[in-house]
């Protein structure tokens, strides 16, 4: 496997991270997972915009355009013969002695490499069950930060208990998103999802779904759902780079649409497949 480290391409076994990389000591960095279809990055510009946003919010001095990051990622895809798959990319602030404040003159460290990823076809077809968990994350979920401890804790809970995903809520009035996905409800033909603010990550697939809704004349509404609202949904689904669109047919014990995949969800999944095929 060939790895991109800053602006150099190296072999997997030459890639060594320093123990004082702030990504290790503080989780001081941000990341992206980009999907590759037919050798091309899906929604590259949107990923680079979000990456620049995350970097800016934690004041890591790295200019995506100046570094020609898009070109470097294209080269990485070619060097690894990625046709259908994904690239993981992370940028940490610096390698620096462990002091909490940001070091001066820091040199950000970028690593990018291919991920093994397969489309969850069965789940897309049959739908999944999710479990509700309290959202105990911080209040800056808009930053795609390396700090994923709570996300992995609830994912593990879901996994151990036979659920595909944990659906998070802050309180009875406020359902946010999945542990690694955005959540959508469908009610009377309208697609409803959490506003893109500090309580969720503004998913790239979420943006894609918003565009499909516009193209298909499906009303798209950004609104906070309550736990009670979940019981009245006609359909539900999650989205993410790896999941694309996956129908949710059961939330804990509560079936949605009698446990069947709904027609609006099907339409959006089909639009997605057409776009990337
Ligand atoms: N996660 N919300 C959270 C908390 C996420 O971690 C993700 C994606 C999303 C969906 O974003 P996108 O559509 O851009 O993938 C929403 C990635 C895939 C991950 O951590 O592997």
UniProtKB/TrEMBL annotation:
One of its GO terms (biological process) is carboxylic acid biosynthetic process. Its cofactor is pyridoxal 5'-phosphate. Keywords: Aminotransferase, Pyridoxal phosphate, Transferase. InterPro entries: Aminotrans_IV, Aminotrans_IV_CS, Aminotransferase-like, BCAT-like_C, BCAT-like_N, Class-IV_PLP-Dep_Aminotrnsfr, D_amino_transT. It is an enzyme of class 2 (transferase). It catalyses: D-alanine + 2-oxoglutarate = D-glutamate + pyruvate. Gene3D superfamilies: 3.30.470.10, D-amino Acid Aminotransferase, subunit A, domain 2 (3.20.10.10). Its EC number is 2.6.1.21. The keyword Iron-sulfur does not apply. GO terms for cellular component: cytosol. GO terms for molecular function: D-alanine-2-oxoglutarate aminotransferase activity; pyridoxal phosphate binding. NCBIfam families: D_amino_aminoT. Acts on the D-isomers of alanine, leucine, aspartate, glutamate, aminobutyrate, norvaline and asparagine. The enzyme transfers an amino group from a substrate D-amino acid to the pyridoxal phosphate cofactor to form pyridoxamine and an alpha-keto acid in the first half-reaction. Homodimer. Belongs to the class-IV pyridoxal-phosphate-dependent aminotransferase family. This is D-alanine aminotransferase.
